[in-house]
Amino acid sequence: MLKVGVIGVQGAVSEHIDATKRALEKLGVGGEAFWLRRPEQLNAIDAIILPGGESTTISRLMQKSGLFEPVTKLGEEGLPIMGTCAGLILLAKEVEGAVEGQRFLELLDVRVNRNAYGRQVNSFEAPLKLSFSDEPFPGVFIRAPRIVELLGDKIKPIAWHGDEVVGVEQGNIIGLAFHPELTEDARLHEYFLRRAL
Amino acid sequence: MGRLRVIEAKGTERLKRGFARMVKGGVIMDVTNAEQARIAEEAGAVSVMALHKVPADIRKAGGVARMAPIEKIQEIMDAVTIPVMAKVRIGHVAEARVLEALGVDMIDESEVLTPANPFFHIDKREFNVPFVCGARNLGEAVRRIWEGSAMIRTKGEAGTGNIVEAVRHVRLVADNIRLIQRMTDEQVYGVAEKFAEPYLRLARQIREISGLSERILENEPVYGHYTYREIVDGLYKILLGIKKLGRLPVVNFAAGGVATPADAALMMQMGMDGVFVGSGIFKSSNPEKMARAIVEAVNHWDKPDVLVEISKEIGEPMKGLEIEELEVRLEDRGV
């Protein structure tokens, strides 16, 4: 029984819950995906997803809800955590374009630029190349952050848009600039959940 | 590593609806200048609505309410990193093109401004920028979604600080969805025909005024290049989706009259995906505190004990108005 919590303070939470359920089914693994809103829910958890949304709002509300410190600690201890879009920003060690005083979990050795692709009119869809699959993946980029630099050699690319890295992994942590939860394709959720098995 | 050809698609329905999904569980605040925008961002707003005047002041000022001045919107876009929305008059395609070119993140085709088109709303499918539209009931919501709206909000009664109309609209949509779920597909088709009637009525009105025959042939367009039957089929498809999902296929926020943290929590308890707060913040005695409190109330809507703490020491909420005493009802604009 895998217990997968999707940080549920703001953003595309139900989409990640649905995608996780599809991935669990594909993997043939029993489990549950739920809204993670309180620190008590972190007991006996197997994986955490940080959804897309507004990174400023999610960061603020995670601190207010008392989720910020314990989630950081669990990540450091090796719990699988995946962040998409705003979630990637929250996981990054360095963030360009952050709002003053905004805090990050700093679990991924990357530098990201928060509004690098521009505004909503510049949002786009594009097929992506994955490190673990020959089939292209439908990339959905909505006011996406850009991965500007990989800091050190512990961090590995797992997704590319053309030549540009748009997805990374570092041990137990995965960060994606795009939104797999807005597609029917659950391969990235499966890839992530395998690390919790 | 084999190279993929880089193909990009922009302005797709997935991108438009996806943008709206990213603001779920959040508060979108009306702001009229850079300073207010920064207060909203610091308080944890997921987006700001750039306006010339907040609805309460639009009410007081009277006259024609239009799209905000470009300099104002630009000032607000430059001040914050969260997405910026702005309002256009109902049916004002040119204002919408201007805002799209300016680069606002979402357009609100809003009854709060003076309507520009007495007949129809904008065909929003022709734009790359996503739209949000108001609705008082399921018919209005489904028509706006068919026209390409990526997000729906209750109309409420803006600028009053009175939640009663927003509650009415949430209730009407929810009850209508439950009715749809008990219907056969054939009955749902009948609903689609009913919901398509305003397009027919308005097209007839135009003919009548022009001194033409009111009769509209099967193959004659009634809205844009769409015939009545094409519209019915479009609405039917959306209604079948609603029947299956048990909710609207797009994000649905509350708006119009949200003035306190408890108002915001009430809207979330009634199943809304988030809230717009207009006059409620900058017409209260302490906007910073009120803004933060409403953000937290949307996050903790189901925890009364937390709401107690949130609701303490937030100052005076905006004064508020009785609906019966209003001279202008904004919610009646645009069907």
UniProtKB/TrEMBL annotation, chain A:
Task: Describe which pathway this protein belongs to, using the record's wording.
Answer: Cofactor biosynthesis; pyridoxal 5'-phosphate biosynthesis
Extract the InterPro entries matched here: Class_I_gatase-like (IPR029062), PdxT/SNO (IPR002161), PdxT/SNO_CS (IPR021196)
Catalyzed reactions per annotation: L-glutamine + H2O = L-glutamate + NH4(+); aldehydo-D-ribose 5-phosphate + D-glyceraldehyde 3-phosphate + L-glutamine = pyridoxal 5'-phosphate + L-glutamate + phosphate + 3 H2O + H(+)
Pfam families, A to Z: SNO
Q: Does the keyword Lyase apply?
A: yes
Q: Which GO terms describe its biological process?
A: L-glutamine catabolic process; pyridoxal phosphate biosynthetic process; pyridoxine metabolic process
The organism's place on the tree of life at top rank: Archaea
EC number(s) recorded for this UniProt protein: 4.3.3.6, 3.5.1.2
Q: Does the keyword Lyase apply?
A: yes
Sorted keywords for this record are:
Glutamine amidotransferase, Hydrolase, Lyase, Pyridoxal phosphate, Transferase
Q: Name one GO cellular component term.
A: glutaminase complex
Q: Which HAMAP family match?
A: PdxT (MF_01615)
What family name appears in the similarity comment? Answer: Belongs to the glutaminase PdxT/SNO family.
What role is this protein assigned?
Catalyzes the hydrolysis of glutamine to glutamate and ammonia as part of the biosynthesis of pyridoxal 5'-phosphate. The resulting ammonia molecule is channeled to the active site of PdxS.
Q: What is this protein called?
A: Pyridoxal 5'-phosphate synthase subunit PdxT
Q: Which organism is it from?
A: Thermococcus piezophilus
What does the organism's lineage look like at the top?
Archaea, Methanobacteriati, Methanobacteriota, Thermococci, Thermococcales
UniProtKB/TrEMBL annotation, chain B:
Its annotated pathway reads: Cofactor biosynthesis; pyridoxal 5'-phosphate biosynthesis
Q: Which residues bind D-ribose 5-phosphate?
A: 30, 159, 257, 278-279
Keywords tagged on the record: Lyase, Pyridoxal phosphate, Schiff base
Q: Which CDD domains match?
A: pdxS
Sorted alphabetically, which PROSITE patterns does this protein's record hold? PDXS_SNZ_1, PDXS_SNZ_2
Report the residue ranges that make up the PdxS/SNZ N-terminal domain in this protein.
13-211
Q: Which reaction does it catalyse?
A: aldehydo-D-ribose 5-phosphate + D-glyceraldehyde 3-phosphate + L-glutamine = pyridoxal 5'-phosphate + L-glutamate + phosphate + 3 H2O + H(+)
What does it do? Catalyzes the formation of pyridoxal 5'-phosphate from ribose 5-phosphate (RBP), glyceraldehyde 3-phosphate (G3P) and ammonia. The ammonia is provided by the PdxT subunit. Can also use ribulose 5-phosphate and dihydroxyacetone phosphate as substrates, resulting from enzyme-catalyzed isomerization of RBP and G3P, respectively.
Subunit organization:
In the presence of PdxT, forms a dodecamer of heterodimers.
What protein does this entry describe?
A: Pyridoxal 5'-phosphate synthase subunit PdxS
Q: What is the native source organism of this protein?
A: Thermococcus piezophilus
